[in-house]
Amino acid sequence: MLSRTGRPLSQVLFGPIARLCVKAHISADAITIGGTLAGVIAALTLLPFDHLTAAAWTIGVLVIFDNLDGQIARLTGTSSKWGAFLDSTLDRVSDGAIFSGILIWAYLWADPSYQGWILVGTLGALVFGSVVPYARARAEGLGMTASVGLAERADRLVVSLVSVWFVGMEWGDWILAVAMWLLFIAAVITVIQRMVFVYGQAKA
């Protein structure tokens, strides 16, 4: 939901930055790869070492700037299937690093009262969250669509990073437990929604 509604705003906010990147001869692929590497490093260092507030802000900024590659590609006329594939694939890598970082943090630092809940919820959100984009990609590969559901990537990232920030501000580990279970459940519902949606198209 957020990924669809936020695109016009991101174009206005980051259009000037994208034009500066074009003038500096920075390619869309370079932004995609560099942003992913920075995000993975931040997630797998700041989160496991209990720097939750810094992790939330750092990863949040990197995620926001993630839309630059698409804008640069459009400005330079270099939009391609390869670029779309690279961006989508590395998005999965970034997401996996973020949720893995949360898992490691929970194992090392979480309040024992909520540790099990956070671990199971995060693992479920990671597994089913990875199925959500796969279901859409597979449907589109078969000539159908599956762009429906509650838990798109932007929604999952906002919920996870905001909850990490709240915990880093010492508002309580229970917040992360609730957030991860909400993401887990939302991802399961989204997978089912997409399966039903594709089933209807296939039968039609």
Number of helices: 9
Strand tally is: 0
Uncertain runs are: none
Class per helix and strand makeup: mainly alpha
Estimate the global geometry from the Cα principal axes: flat
Calculate the terminal CA-CA distance, rounded to whole Å.
Answer: 26 Å
Average pLDDT metric: 89
Q: Please trace the helix and strand order, writing H or E for each element.
A: HHHHHHHHH
Reconstruct the topology from this structure:
Layout: H1 2-5, H2 7-23, H3 28-46, H4 52-64, H5 68-76, H6 81-109, H7 112-141, H8 153-168, H9 174-203
Helix pairs in contact: 2-5, 3-4, 3-5, 3-6, 4-8, 6-7, 7-9, 8-9
Descriptive overview:
It is built from nine helices and no strands. It is flat, with a radius of gyration of 18 Å. The mean pLDDT is 89. Helix 3 runs antiparallel to helix 4 and helix 3 (28-46) packs parallel to helix 6. With 204 residues, it is mainly α. It has helices at 2-5, 7-23, 28-46, 52-64, 68-76, 81-109, 112-141, 153-168, 174-203. The longest helix has 30 residues, at 112-141.
Keywords:
9 helices; single chain; 204 residues; 0% strand; mainly alpha
Short overview:
The protein has 204 residues and is mainly α.
